[in-house]
Design goal:
The chain is elongated. It has 277 residues and is an alpha/beta fold. The protein has one domain: TIM Barrel. Helices cover 43% and strands 15% of the residues. Bound molecules: zinc ion (ZN).
Length: 277
């Protein structure tokens, strides 16, 4: 013991220096940044994330699917003031599949179901701010129920830059339908749209948003170029063309604040990381 004490006394300066060195090494290695993994660039060209907004009704019924016209106008005004340009589904398709350039701040504004208020309320507001929209219609509902579009209204919207696309024939959830029913829904709505509007309809939105890979294959077989889900995210060039992401805009206690949060922050969140499936 005595010997040990003397040993310590004799070499304490060396021991102290040794301990200090160890502490120093520990500090330096902690502050030293780890080598950053090189980000892999999957596609050349435009790698932006594009937001696809998903509306349903634009009226004052306080239904959760309804945005009040005044709120809708504030949202369109905000988009215009911030330099957004509305695009068509065809432009989005070209961007995802071939990297075709899009205008600055592109946004695809979509509506599901084909409610008459899309024509009477949303359309005049969008026209005022220089935007076009895409309406996914349930083809057997037009000219049948008063709260849905008429074919004449659909034609007028098409003639003014809007895109009328398929939301199937009867709005049956595809995950609850047989293959034969799914094919019927897809082909019948496509044929009706061709007959009524004189154009090939290439895009479909899954009713209630439900789909799976098998259903996506049936959509492809039926001659559609792309399909839209309600998977909450932005679209980029890694997106599955038969499972395109959208951002729903609903009536909430704070509709416009929620709208701004989605528009401004979602691209930042999704830019770096969420793996697309
Ligand atoms: Zn729907």
């Amino acid at each position: 013991m005595e010997q040990f004490k003397e040993y310590v006394k004799k070499y304490k300066i060396y021991i102290a220096v040794g301990v200090m060195l160890l502490v120093l090494i520990a500090i330096v290695s902690q502050n030293n940044p780890q080598p950053v993994e090189e980000k892999q660039v999957v596609n050349s060209g435009d790698c932006r994330a594009v937001m696809v907004l998903n509306y349903h009704k634009v009226d004052s019924t306080f239904h959760s699917l309804s945005i009040a016209p005044a709120d809708f106008e504030r949202q369109m005004q905000w988009l215009q003031q911030h330099g957004y340009h509305s695009i068509t589904p065809e432009q989005l398709y070209d961007f995802v599949t071939t990297g075709e350039a899009l205008p600055d701040n592109p946004i695809l504004i979509t509506f599901d179901d084909g409610y008459v208020d899309n024509y009477s309320n949303a359309y005049p507001i969008m026209k005022k701010y220089g935007f076009v929209g895409t309406i996914f219609v349930v083809t057997t509902f037009l000219d049948k129920y008063p709260n849905y579009l008429t074919w004449d209204q659909a034609k007028e919207l098409e003639a003014n830059g809007f895109s009328i696309e398929s939301h199937t024939a009867t709005h049956k959830s595809m995950t609850e339908a047989s293959d034969a029913q799914i094919v019927e829904e897809l082909t019948q709505s496509k044929a009706t749209l061709k007959e009524k509007l004189g154009k090939d309809v290439n895009f479909v939105a899954y009713p209630t948003g439900t789909y799976n890979l098998h259903i996506a294959q049936l959509v492809k077989n039926a001659g559609y170029k792309a399909a839209f889900t309600i998977k909450f995210d932005t679209v980029n060039r890694n997106s599955n063309i038969y499972a395109l992401e959208r951002v729903p805009i609903f009536h909430t206690a704070n509709t416009n604040k929620d709208f701004l949060e989605r528009i401004q922050y979602l691209p930042l969140i999704s830019k770096d990381g969420w793996v697309k499936k």
